[in-house]
């Protein structure tokens, strides 16, 4: 009886063993799947194409949430944090909440280190990095991610290494906005991320490298094209949209050189944006298509593209004025072209 009871307990333990900390796919893939689901469930949101792409841990890792717009307010927050009148602002609430939780994770990291729980210690360092990111303290966040990276290297966790490289690279990108010398460090860590990752991670790294090389259109285009290849191989529509949008943005600098190829990219972007039901991206796609068509001398086609954008714009005054201006210019150019043709015919007579 005892042996059968012991056997049943062993069977139960084996079947209910906790594998929750082991992702069945790469962290980068979890990030893309989660973003796609979140995007498809949210009406009226727009794809962020020209910002660094971060890996987000799945919910079951139980790490702090990341707030993406804190960097715009970090200086004001540091000045206002002791002003009770400002406590109602959402940004300040996030800042203060992150500040309080940071102390908890500092104690947790210390306790895990003493107890020899190396994985939990690493997770605490990563969590501290996220909280410092939420506070806009990029350099301090990097220090925590470097501690996390050392542990990942020690336990031979390639997924963790990729996550750390991504976090450090993105933070250096943000620091480079005020001090361009940090862009080289961002490139260094994104290349390391690319080296240790599968197709999903390589996609994210390629997008980030393309953004880092923004001043060098050839290198930037190379990495965005690499990102597009990875997204196509994964059948990832959101990834394809991000890559094509960036190819279009970079390609506009050499519009006269290869306008036909540029037009194909924009048409593909429009197709994907329609499938994603992203209204703002569809409007911007029509406007880019209108600009390219006008540059190619297809003024009627350009006018029609700007007209489609005008019909879809509702509350964004800037987009409305831009589309209206594009429509007016294309229409004027078309009329002028027709007038010149008529005058040329008269001269021949």
UniProtKB/TrEMBL annotation:
**UniProt biased composition (Polar residues):** 1-13
Task: Determine if DNA-binding is one of this entry's keywords.
Answer: no
Q: Where is this region: Disordered?
A: 1-26
- Residue ranges of TPR repeats: 122-155, 283-316
Cell inner membrane is among the record's keywords: no
Q: Which SMART domains match?
A: TPR (SM00028)
Q: Chief localization class?
A: cytoplasm
Protein's cellular compartments: Cytoplasm
Q: What's this protein's name?
A: Tetratricopeptide repeat protein
Q: What is the species of this protein?
A: Paramecium pentaurelia
């Amino acid at each position: 009886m005892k042996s059968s009871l012991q056997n049943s307990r062993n069977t139960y333990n084996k079947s209910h063993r906790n594998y929750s900390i082991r992702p069945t796919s790469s962290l980068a893939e979890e990030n893309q799947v989660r973003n796609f689901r979140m995007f498809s469930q949210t009406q009226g949101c727009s794809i962020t194409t020209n910002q660094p792409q971060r890996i987000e841990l799945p919910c079951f890792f139980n790490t702090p949430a990341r707030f993406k717009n804190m960097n715009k307010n970090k200086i004001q927050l540091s000045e206002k944090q002791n002003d009770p009148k400002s406590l109602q602002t959402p940004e300040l609430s996030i800042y203060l909440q992150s500040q309080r939780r940071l102390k908890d994770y500092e104690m947790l990291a210390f306790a895990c280190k003493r107890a020899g729980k190396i994985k939990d210690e690493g997770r605490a360092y990563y969590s501290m990095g996220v909280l410092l990111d939420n506070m806009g303290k990029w350099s301090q966040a990097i220090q925590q991610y470097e501690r996390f990276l050392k542990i990942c290297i020690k336990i031979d966790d390639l997924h963790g290494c990729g996550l750390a490289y991504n976090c450090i690279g993105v933070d250096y990108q943000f620091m480079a906005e005020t001090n361009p010398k940090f862009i080289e460090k961002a490139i260094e860590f994104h290349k390391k991320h690319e080296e240790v990752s599968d197709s999903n991670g390589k996609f994210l790294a390629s997008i980030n490298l393309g953004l880092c090389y923004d001043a060098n259109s050839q290198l930037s285009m190379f990495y965005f094209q690499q990102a597009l290849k990875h997204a196509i191989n994964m059948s990832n529509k959101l990834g394809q949209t991000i890559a094509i949008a960036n190819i279009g943005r970079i390609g506009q600098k050499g519009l006269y050189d290869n306008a036909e190829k540029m037009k194909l990219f924009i048409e593909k972007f429009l197709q994907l944006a329609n499938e994603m039901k992203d209204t703002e991206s569809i409007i911007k796609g029509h406007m880019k298509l209108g600009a390219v068509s006008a540059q190619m001398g297809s003024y009627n086609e350009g006018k029609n593209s700007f007209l489609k954008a005008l019909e879809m714009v509702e509350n964004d005054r800037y987009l409305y004025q831009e589309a209206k201006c594009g429509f007016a210019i294309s229409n004027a150019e078309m009329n002028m072209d027709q007038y010149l043709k008529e005058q040329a015919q008269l001269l021949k007579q």
